[in-house]
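Weekly puzzle thread! Below is a chain. First person to post its structure in token form gets bragging rights.
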Amino acid sequence: MTIEEHIRLVLDRASIGTLYTVHEGNPYGRYMTFRSDGATLYTVTDKHSAKLMDIEKNPHVHVLLGYQPGTENNYLEFEGQVTDVIDDNLRMKMRNFFRLVFQKDATEVTLLKIEPSVIYLHTQDGSPAQKLVLPADL
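Winning reply:
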């Protein structure tokens, strides 16, 4: 199985992860629910959240995703940055998915689009992490 196939398997099965931002010069992690479209991750947050303020100051983020039943205990590390969502159809598709997770009014949340520059695949077979530099087809 290729690294891309392993990554796709984890992305298809895992939705809970940790989003790390930089808060007052230090890493700060929060559990989040994610949805993927290819290698791009999406999540939602309250428009008044501390994490959104952190991202506005520094859009570079780190995400850990996977390591749960159904993923063979493989997990992914994403290095990337948060960018704006422009496509209204995609925005509505993701908002509908997250409405089940995030119960606030749609006007109180914002959709975060995380575009990775590097994805690391960690497997439990004792081998070193595999690195995928993007753009790549997933």
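Puzzle host: Confirmed. Bonus trivia for everyone else. Residues 88-99 form the longest helix (12 residues).
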